[in-house]
Amino acid sequence: MISAQEALRRLREGNARFVSGERNHDALTSEHRRREVAVAQEPFAIILGCSDSRVPAETVFDQGLGDLFVIRVAGNIVAPSQIGSVEFATERFGTRLVVVLGHSNCGAITATIEELQRRHEEQSRNLRSIVDRVRPSVAALLAINDHMPQAELIGQAVRANIRMSVNQLRHGSEILEQHVQKDGLLVVGAVYSLETGIVEFFEGLE
After folding, report:
1. Cβ of 163: how many Cβ atoms within 10 Å?
2. Is the distance from CB of 64 to CB of 27 less than 8 angstroms?
3. Confidence (pTM)
C-alpha cells in the first residue's frame, strides 16, 4: 500500500512533467499496462475533480491506466454519491490520498456568483442543485467583501469551494473519518491553473 505522502509526491512529480512537456506516454498507456490492470487495479490516489474538459486528472498529473481513481462533477462538489465513491475506493483499494481538485475560472463558481448577485430564474433544477452546493462558501466570501474585483472574487471563491469540499469529505463520513484517524488517510485540496498547467496543493497538507 502506498502512503499518502508517497502518493502526493508522485502527483507533484507527474504535474511537473506535464508542465515541462516531458510526459511519459508509452509507459502509461502501453499494452502491457492495459493487460496488467485488466486483472486488478490499485489506484494510489483518489481525485475528486471538476468535469471541465480542460482539467483531465490523468493528463495534468501525467498518470496512466489504473493509477488514479477519478470522480468528476461540475464544481468538484461533494454530494452523497461522491462521498460513497471515495468510501468505495478507500475501502476496496486501500487508497490513502484524496485530492479535491478545483481550477481557475471555474464555470460552476462563476454561475454561483452570478446567482447570488443577480438571481437567474432560467436555471434548471438540476443545475441549481450544483449551484446550491457551491453557494455557502461563495456567500460567506461575498459577505466579507462584496466590492472585490470579479476576477479576484472568482479566484478566492474557487479556493473557498475546494476547502468546503475537503471539509465535507473529512467530516461527512464515519468511514473516511476512521481512515483519517487510524489509517493515515489524507484529504487535501488543490487548484489547477488553466493558464500555466501548474497544480498548487494548498489545503490539508499539515
Report:
1. 17
2. yes
3. 0.91
